[in-house]
Amino acid sequence: xxxxxxxxxxxxxxxxxxxxxxxxxxxxxxxxxxxxxxxxxxxxxxxxxxxxxxxxxxxxxxxxxxxxxxxxxxxxxxxxxxxxxxxxxxxxxxxxxxxxxxxxxxxxxxxxxxxxxxxxxxxxxxxxxxxxxxxxxxxxxxxxxxxxxxxxxxxxxxxxxxxxxxxxxxxxxxxxxxxxxxxxxxxxxxxxxxxxxxxxxxxxxxxxxxxxxxxxxxxxxxxxxxxxxxxxxxxxxxxxxxxxxxxxxxxxxxxxxxxxxxxxxxxxxxxxxxxxxxxxxxxxxxxxxxxxxxxxxxxxxxxxxxxxxxxxxxxxxxxxxxxxxxxxxxxxxxxxxxxxxxxxxxxxxxxxxxxxxxxxxxxxxxxxxxxxxxxxxxxxxxxxxxxxxxxxxxxxxxxxxxxxxxxxxxxxxxxxxxxxxxxxxxxxxxxxxxxxxxxxxxxxxxxxxxxxxxxxxxxxxxxxxxxxxxxxxxxxxxxxxxxxxxxxxxxxxxxxxxxxxxxxxxxxxxxxxxxxxxxxxxxxxxxxxxxxxxxxxxxxxxxxxxxxxxxxxxxxxxxxxxxxxxxxxxxxxxxxxxxxxxxxxxxxxxxxxxxxxxxxxxxxxxxxxxxx
Length: 612
Hints:
Elements: E1 22-25, E2 31-34, H1 36-43, H2 53-66, E3 71-73, E4 77-85, E5 89-96, H3 97-101, E6 108-114, H4 116-120, H5 124-135, E7 146-152, E8 155-160, E9 165-167, H6 168-174, H7 182-201, E10 204-205, E11 214-217, E12 222-224, E13 231-232, H8 257-260, H9 267-283, H10 293-298, H11 311-320, H12 332-339, H13 354-392, H14 396-409, H15 414-448, H16 452-466, H17 470-509, H18 513-526, H19 531-566, H20 570-583, H21 588-607
Antiparallel strand pairs: 1-2, 3-4, 4-5, 5-6, 6-8, 7-8, 9-11, 10-13, 11-12
């Protein structure tokens, strides 16, 4: 937003979110702790779902704010960088986490944190909330859009649209004592007249109109800021007795004598301030050397004549710059009529009679009305032409703003209305197209990571946005094709698994446990939860362990049987061999040992030897 010249009087508390006490600097420069419980309450961020990419991004931004990257207000507004300082407070570039969660391509707004004087004033919150509510009714292309006025603990703040361009006070400083080109000044002035006239029609007076509260966008159009502290014209609306001037919301250089004396505000106060701004744009300096109207009157200062202006223009500007209210132009409309319309007074001779004088007056009035109407239509035509150029260039925001001004000046102008509707429709279609492209890109990213469920989520959002959109249909077809391919691969995989399970079962039955284990392991690599493969693996492992145990016992019995044979204890050898055959009936070595022992024993008995 606008960068004011006034020095910042306070520092925003850094609200922590990690459960620790943070030390921050107050407006006197001393450090003070921030309550950790209060801090974590401010930064807690939850939602009813957790599958949204926007929500994930918002949650990550909250985590970053807790580590010191930005300050979070109301669990929603992430203050990222300072844009300017002023008497009211500090303006921050802000990311709205609700917009982030909704995947808005432009999630940025501006937040003005009001200074300590506003916080401490007993009527400040109520009064500023009332005035902010009024400013929210000012839907005009040349007035900044105010979203809301709120508080977080003792922090008072306002949220509004974020502008791109330069504050007028910086543009003027860059041309100090030279002034801006007259054509540029008139363009800006017309926007300022339109903004103040619109507000005054709604009985709302700005009361702090100055270059620092005016922003010139990159397209050259001007917007008025800080209607949030503007004051209503009726006495009833001022009964809260809140004096914005005492809290830095009154700039003496642009304040009338009446405002300095704390008298009720009037439309004439804004007329004077606007005249000062126009003079400053033209000359590159303040008409009264940055003195208040009261001081200028005391010092008998007068504005220096500007060579850029003709006699009529200088007269109009001088009247608006009058220090006394009685001599000053009373309304914005009268000021605009005197400065811009080219009205040539009709010379009337006194020699004509009263009837001729009356006739001449009627002719003059008719001619002046004709000129005013012609000027109005010319302005409307200019706005429509600019809007058409913007539309052709694809700058629909510009087209909407210009056609809005045209329709406000001529509500029956069909061209302006049709252009406004076409620009609004084109802007909406572009926004939908950009969102569609973003959804498709997100889905493509998911597919590149082989995350089909993620891709299906974004494809579903794309269908909700526009099921008939070509990109949405192509995306759905691509995902369906991948699903079919995956199903086909899955079916083939299931068939392969079934064959391997049958082969593993056969190996198990044939006591080929290594074969059974290898095949079951291969199945589990493809399907870790396959119950049949787990069962075969367990059975093969158990059988293999039992097989190893039997082999060990068998080897031991055969060793013992051979030892018995060496000792010629043939009965022992026969017993050991039979025990081995009990474990393995087909064991050839055990059979041979048994037969040898029995045959040796028989021969000994036939020869008469006694076996002991």
